[in-house]
Write a structure and sequence with these properties.
heterodimer, A: about 350 residues, alpha+beta, Zincin-like, 2 domains, 4-stranded mixed beta sheet, about 65% helix, elongated, B: about 190 residues, mainly alpha, de novo design (two linked rop proteins), 7 helices
C-alpha cells in the first residue's frame, strides 16, 4: 500500500462520514421547514378569525414534523442495512451446505483478512443475473450480498475480485452513505405515497367556488405540492452522492487487496456479458451494486448528463483501467524474474 | 503581540507532536495486530494438515515420500518458537518449506482422478486453497502495514518523534521464490467454464 492510496482511503472515509452527516441534517431540516412553513401559513390563515375562534400561535406542526424526521432518520440509519437486504429478498448464509456457498464464505473470509476488516455477514440473492452489493454502517456492521448467478458464473479468482471490490466499499465507508441514502429515499417515498393517498379523496372538486378550503386541506396541499417538488431534489442528491468515481476507487482497492486486477476485469466482463437486468434488485438499492442492476443504457456513456444521472461508470472503461493495472504488474514481475 | 505568536507556534508544535506520536503508536499496534493475524492463519493450516494427510493416505501408498515431507515440514513448523529477535525469519523459513511440500502434494493429488472424485478430497482442496490464500493475504496485510510503519519512522519530520514513540523498524515477511508467490493463484475451482 503506497502512501497515496492510504491517503485516498482516509479522505474517502472522511468525505463519506461528512456527506452522511449532511444528508441526515438536510433531511431533518427539510422536514422542519415543511412543518414550520405549514405553521406559518396556518397562523396567517387564523389571524383574521374572530376573537373566540382558534388562533394558531404555537408551531405544533413544525415541532412534530421535525421530531418525526429525526426519528425517521435515526430509524433509517439503524435499520437501513436490514431494509436494503429485505428489499432484495437476500438470505443469509449461516451454515454453508453446498460447495459453492462454502467457497463464497471462504473467499469472503480471505478478503476480509486482506482488507484488515472483520468478516462481514454474507447473503445470497436468489437471482440468475450476476451482481453483488455491500451494505452496512461501518466495517464492524457490514453485509455483503451476491446473486446466485454470480456464484455460478465466476471462477474463484473472479469471485475474489468482486468480493474485494465490495469490501473496498465497506472499508472506505461508501456503504454508510449509500445505505443511509437508500433508507431515507425509501422513507420519503413512503411519506410521499401517504400524502398522495390523503389528498386524492378530498381534492376532487377544485372549481372556483366562493367557499374557502379548510385549513387542514390547505396545509396538506402544501405538503403534497412540496413532496412532489422533493422528488427531483432527492434524485439529484442521489446522483451527487453516488458520484461515479467511487466505483473506480473500489476497483482500485480490489486490485490492492487481491493483487490480481485481471481477475476483476474478467469478472466485470462476464457480468457485462450477462445483459439481463437483476430483477430482484429494485431502483432503491441500484446504486449499491457492482454493476447497474437496471441495465440502463445511460451507464454506457460519459459526459455531464450521464455523470449527473447514471449511478455507474461505463463498464468498458473500468475493465480497461483494471487491464492497465494488470499488465503493468505482469511487466514488473517479468522484469524482476529476468 | 510577539508572545502571542510564540504561544500559537507552541500550540501548533505540541499539536503536531501529539498527532505524530499517536500516529506512530497506532501504526505500531496495527503492525502487531497484522502479525498476530498471520499466526492465527498458520495455526489453522497446522490443524488442517492432519485431516488432509488422513484423507489421502490410503490412496497414496506409492507417493509415501511426498506425504512424509508434508508431515515432517508441518511438525517442524509447529515446533518453531515464535519469540526472539529473528522470530519472523525462523517462522517464515519453516512455513515456506511447508508451503512447497504442500504444493507438491497438491500437484500429486491432481494426477489421481479417482482420488479427486471423492467429495472429501475436493472439499479439503477448497479448504487448503483457502488456508493458503488466508496466509498469503495475512502476510500481504502485515507487509503493507509494516512498510507504512517503517516509512513513517524514517520520513522527516516524523523521524524526530520516532525515538520518543520507541518505534523500531518492523521486519518484513520475505517471500522466498517466485513459485511460492504463485500459490494463491492455483485455480482449483470445480465449476464448468461458462
Amino acid at each position: 500500500m503506497t502512501d497515496e492510496t492510504s491517503l485516498n482511503l482516509f479522505q474517502q472515509q472522511e468525505a463519506n462520514r461528512r456527506r452522511t452527516f449532511w444528508l441526515v441534517v438536510g433531511f431533518v431540516v427539510f422536514f422542519a421547514w415543511l412543518g414550520f412553513g405549514g405553521d406559518y401559513l396556518y397562523y396567517l390563515y387564523t389571524l383574521q378569525a374572530p376573537r373566540q375562534a382558534y388562533h394558531h400561535t404555537f408551531p405544533w406542526f413544525g415541532i412534530a414534523l421535525s421530531l418525526v424526521a429525526l426519528a425517521l432518520a435515526w430509524y433509517a440509519y439503524q435499520t437501513g442495512p436490514e431494509k436494503v437486504l429485505w428489499s432484495t429478498g437476500a438470505e443469509e448464509v449461516t451454515d454453508p451446505e453446498d460447495p459453492k456457498e462454502k467457497q463464497l464464505v471462504n473467499v469472503v473470509e480471505e478478503m476480509a483478512i486482506a482488507a484488515g476488516v472483520p468478516r462481514p455477514r454474507i447473503w445470497i440473492v436468489d437471482d440468475p443475473d450476476p451482481n453483488a452489493f455491500a451494505t452496512g454502517t461501518d466495517p464492524l456492521h457490514s453485509h455483503i450480498a451476491v446473486t446466485r448467478g454470480l456464484l455460478d458464473l465466476c471462477s474463484r479468482d473472479e469471485l475474489q475480485g468482486v468480493i474485494a471490490h465490495e469490501l473496498g466499499h465497506v472499508k472506505n465507508l461508501d456503504v454508510r452513505l449509500m445505505t443511509t441514502l437508500a433508507a431515507l429515499v425509501g422513507a420519503v417515498a413512503l411519506m410521499h405515497d401517504g400524502a398522495t393517498r390523503v389528498i386524492r379523496p378530498g381534492g376532487g372538486g377544485g372549481s372556483g367556488d366562493e367557499r374557502k378550503p379548510s385549513p387542514l386541506l390547505l396545509v396538506l396541499a402544501v405538503v403534497w405540492l412540496i413532496s412532489w417538488l422533493l422528488a427531483p431534489i432527492v434524485a439529484q442528491l442521489l446522483a451527487l452522492g453516488v458520484s461515479r468515481k467511487r466505483e473506480y476507487l473500489a476497483d482500485a482497492m480490489s486490485a490492492q487487496f487481491t493483487r490480481n486486477p485481471l481477475a476483476l476485469a474478467s469478472a466485470l466482463q462476464k457480468i457485462e456479458g450477462a445483459d439481463a437486468p437483476t430483477t430482484h434488485i429494485k431502483r432503491g438499492a441500484a446504486h449499491l451494486c457492482i454493476a447497474d442492476p437496471l441495465g440502463r443504457r445511460l451507464t454506457d456513456h460519459e459526459g455531464v448528463f450521464a455523470d449527473a444521472l447514471a449511478t455507474h461508470p461505463p463498464m468498458a472503461k473500468r475493465i480497461a483501467i483494471l487491464r492497465g493495472m494488470g499488465y503493468a504488474q505482469l511487466k514488473k514481475e517479468g522484469g524482476a524474474l529476468s | 503581540m510577539g508572545s502571542m505568536i510564540l504561544l500559537i507556534l507552541l500550540v501548533v508544535l505540541v499539536g503536531w507532536l501529539i498527532g505524530a506520536y499517536n500516529g506512530l503508536v497506532s501504526l505500531k499496534n496495527q503492525t502487531l495486530n497484522a502479525f498476530k493475524q498471520i499466526d492465527v492463519q498458520l495455526k489453522r493450516r497446522h490443524d488442517l494438515i492432519p485431516n488432509l494427510v488422513n484423507a489421502v493416505k490410503g490412496a497414496m501408498d506409492f507417493e509415501r515420500s511426498t506425504l512424509e515431507a508434508v508431515i515432517q515440514a508441518r511438525n517442524q513448523a509447529v515446533k518453531v518458537n515464535a519469540a526472539g529477535p529473528d522470530a519472523i525469519k525462523q517462522i517464515s523459513q519453516a512455513e515456506n518449506t511447508l508451503s512447497s511440500a504442500l504444493q507438491r502434494l497438491m500437484v500429486v493429488v491432481e494426477q489421481y482422478p479417482q482420488l479427486k472424485a471423492t467429495g472429501n478430497i475436493s472439499q479439503l482442496q477448497e479448504e487448503l486453497t483457502s488456508t493458503e490464500n488466508r496466509i498469503a493475504f495475512a502476510r500481504q496485510l502485515y507487509n503493507d502495514t509494516a512498510t507504512q510503519y517503517n516509512t513513517k519512522q524514517q520520513q522527516f519530520p516524523t523521524n524526530l518523534v520516532a525515538g520518543i514513540a520507541k518505534a523500531q523498524p518492523a521486519d518484513l515477511w520475505e517471500i522466498e521464490d517466485q513459485a511460492e508467490r504463485a500459490v494463491p493463484q492455483v485455480d482449483l475451482s470445480t465449476k464448468p467454464k461458462a
